[in-house]
Write a structure and sequence with these properties.
Pfam families: Methyltransf_25. This protein has 260 residues and is α/β, with parallel strands linked by helices. Helices cover 39% and strands 21% of the residues. Strands 1-4-3-2-5-6-8-7 form an eight-stranded mixed β-sheet, with helices on both faces. The structure holds S-adenosylmethionine.
Length: 260
């Protein structure tokens, strides 16, 4: 069982694959650093913000609540979103959880507190500023952090019982590559939960909103895209909850994954 943040960090390091990558990782910052001396890319204004220390500092209390209110997730607080993630991921035991694009760990720590025994929640992000904040604010006996690129998750297939990715796919240049990675590292029978953007209807409104958010580097996804991709990937129990400009999609990975 993880007894301290240091034990959780050691376990997070042990889970990195392949072994050669583990050997190159640094842990002196209190997290597993897989990209030493490699700054996070800044392809858009939104990404620049995610790599900024001031934004990382105010992210949990100010930046995210404001952003979420702009998305019109009517009446849903961050605690309600966290509770939804726990329910959708079915967390209640010694599970291994991966929180991809975890930001300052504002979900990771909460998810880790639902685990028991050998359970561990690993927050994974590419931003040094966000990971540093996560280590400062949201470490725990079952919560540890890894800095790397979600397009190349450093884990063997089927490593995790649950995989979460909230408020991030719309910022990532290759979201479908990341989605494939999330599904790859999930074990058969495991649960995935994402929260991302949802294009408003009718189409002219969608184009208008898409143009505005596109300038900031935030992509709007069609309503059916993730449901279709999950189903085409052989996932079952696919559920979607659309709220304003956001969508929550969760599913179970079955034993056989179909190739797309
Ligand atoms: C808006 S924050 C989301 C934080 C948290 N999941 C939440 O729901 O509040 C988006 C995060 O995605 C991260 N991110 C963007 N591209 C990434 C990539 N290729 N790999 C890992 N993380 C990435 C950013 O650094 C940022 O911390």
């Amino acid at each position: 069982m993880s007894e301290s943040p240091e034990t959780a960090l050691r376990r997070a390091l042990e889970m990195i694959e392949p072994e050669m990558l583990r050997g190159l990782a640094r842990t002196d910052g209190g997290y597993v650093e897989l990209l030493p001396d490699v700054p996070a890319p800044n392809p858009s204004p939104a990404s620049i913000a995610m790599n900024n220390r001031v934004v990382a500092t105010i992210y949990e209390k100010l930046w995210r609540p404001f952003g979420v209110s702009m998305m019109g997730i009517a009446g849903m607080s961050m605690s309600a979103e966290r509770a939804k993630a726990v329910t959708d991921l079915r967390l209640d035991g010694p599970q291994r959880v991966l929180d991809v694009a975890c930001g300052p760990g504002n979900f990771t720590k909460f998810l880790s507190e639902k685990l028991t025994g050998d359970g561990i929640a690993i927050g994974f992000d590419i931003s040094e500023a966000m990971i540093a904040r996560a280590v400062q604010d949201n470490r725990g006996p079952r919560a540890a952090y890894v800095r790397g690129d979600a397009a190349h998750l450093p884990y063997s297939d089927s490593t995790f019982d649950a995989v979460c990715c909230y408020a991030a796919l719309y910022l990532i240049p290759k979201p479908m590559t990341v989605l494939d990675e999330l599904i790859r590292v999930l074990r058969p029978g495991g649960r995935i939960a994402i929260m991302t953007s949802c294009e408003p209807r009718p189409a002219p409104l969608g184009s208008l909103v898409g143009f505005g958010t596109g300038l900031a580097g935030v992509r709007m996804f069609p309503k059916d895209l993730f449901v279709d991709v999950f189903e085409a990937s052989g996932l079952t129990e696919v559920e979607q909850d659309v709220r304003g400009l956001a969508q929550f999609v969760s599913a179970t990975k079955e034993n056989q994954r179909n190739d797309r």
